[in-house]
Amino acid sequence: MRVTRREFSKLGAMGLAARMLPVVSAGAQSGERKVGYCVIGLGTIADHFMRGVQGSSNSKITGLVSGHRDKAERIAAQYGVPKSSIYSYEDMDKFRDNKMIDAVYVALPNSMHAEYTIRSAKAGKHVLCEKPMSTTVSEAEAMIAACRDAKVQLMIAYRLHYDPLHLKAVKLIKDGALGKVQTINGAFGFDASPTAWRLNKALAGGGSLFDVGIYVVNACRYLTGEEPVKFTAVTSTIDQDGRFSTMEENVSWTMKFPSGVLATGSSTYGAQMPGYFKVFASKGWMEMSSAYGYDGAKLRASFWGGEKGSPHMEIDEASTEKDPVQFTREADHFSGCVLNNKVPKSSGEEGLRDMKYIEEIYAAAGTVQG
Amino acid sequence: MRVTRREFSKLGAMGLAARMLPVVSAGAQSGERKVGYCVIGLGTIADHFMRGVQGSSNSKITGLVSGHRDKAERIAAQYGVPKSSIYSYEDMDKFRDNKMIDAVYVALPNSMHAEYTIRSAKAGKHVLCEKPMSTTVSEAEAMIAACRDAKVQLMIAYRLHYDPLHLKAVKLIKDGALGKVQTINGAFGFDASPTAWRLNKALAGGGSLFDVGIYVVNACRYLTGEEPVKFTAVTSTIDQDGRFSTMEENVSWTMKFPSGVLATGSSTYGAQMPGYFKVFASKGWMEMSSAYGYDGAKLRASFWGGEKGSPHMEIDEASTEKDPVQFTREADHFSGCVLNNKVPKSSGEEGLRDMKYIEEIYAAAGTVQG
Predict the structure, then answer these.
(1) 0.80 exceeded by pTM
(2) What ipTM describes this predicted complex?
């Protein structure tokens, strides 16, 4: 395929030029170069990520952004990050000139994802951003545009897209082992601490659907390989202890997919709700429980091996992954994309879709969020 | 409490007089008398019931109604029913004068429940009717009125209202062991044979929601002890093999209860969908799988023993019930009600409520049934 200079410029404006370029980055010597990550926000999930990166062959921690200098210096020492690569939220943009930093990992509260993704992109850094991508569809679109304009890669940190047991579940469906999928049920939630930023709508953007329900929405999509087209939903708040003054405690919803697959989902910040999905299909069923955690998932399935009446197959498999391996796989993937100029599997567009569906679910419930 | 004759007549019209009467029936000598059942319809579930009755201390099979005389005679011989107590659907009403028959068990396709309940009541027989009670709310109301007018008891055969493991689940919630219930998920369905009466809307009244989804609706009600007030729903048909020309293949729905508890439900005639419920609450969770079958149910739960942080409790209990014990318990209960002039726990009013909710769910899905 030949592309003229003019055509190439046009492709560039569409964000496609980069994907057509031969691999010329410093990362071409695979195994030689590691992508340097600056971690923005040093909370719990950042800790998982940094430990995960230690197991990655193509990633390393090379910078930190934090509002707590002491904490940042302690962590910097732990990961071999020079003090000169520690930034505050205010002076973060200076990392533009830091050659050790190729990419950022945005591990901030949801409402800050858009701002820090866009600032990082403008500073020329590739962006790995935690889910939910943002708190609104328009923010997500602005994030995609900023990364496109800056010619940097954008990946949303959907750990489970890279998890072998989830990939096995997807493959069982794709290969037709279960027959025609008809219905999926799923849920994920927990009893949130009153002090959590998650219960502050200004920081979280909305309720449990943004933080944990999103796993169920996303799982239904990767399990079916389809995009939902119809939504119904309902929300409620039972506890009157003041925790839920700005958001709902519970949300349950249905989604309909183009093939006719129906899904139900639930999430909560007021109950113990171990994450799960169940897939019901013409030749059998499959379920994963503790489906969305960092490890400990189990996949069970029962289906006809061939046509109905053929020998019955049973799967009962526990994940052998141990935290923080999911983060290692995530970093491996994004670093590979950065080094080889490839669009990540869980791209910004993938994250944007979930933001659209979350908005659809809240709209169906008559609850305006964001 | 004193009741005048005039007041008593009024109560009679309201169907309440019977409950106030002293026990004067022949059943007063408990353990002496067995309630005689005429089984109407000799399909699969009737077989379970008749075997169940053999284990009952206060019930016996004393009549059969069938369109197949040969089959009826074979079964009559098996259960010691005299040939004179075998009826056809046409001449069934003659059993009015058969003193051996106190009650009927209506085990016909859904669309025939109303007619045969009303004919039996008019013949002076107490009625144990399979679920779903009917195919429409108005039929269910007519059934209740007919039994009230005839001063006979009406029970809907909700087996699980009498099942020890389900009662244990209800008690765990009622006692507060799980804390505040926030969300319930449930499903039940199977891949229905193209020749089943269930796929004939004229006989079934509607789709899988009537036959199997009803278990999920009912379970959410007895688990919470509340009546749902808001519904959303969606239906679909994936298989284009002609099976689903008169009804949908899949239905999924949400229900909201007055306290704020949210529930999701799914049912299908196109997939392997082992029945389950999951309850998510502030102090823990509970789930029953293979929840709606004749035996084999397992209850699992995990919750704080006291306040949060107190010792953790785990329940992992398999039902010791073996089919047809659920039917024995059901017959025991109804016979006790007949003998002692008591309203059954799973009364006609209980069945009517589910019919209303089924209509609400189909209405929410934009699908008119019945």
Answers:
(1) yes
(2) 0.90
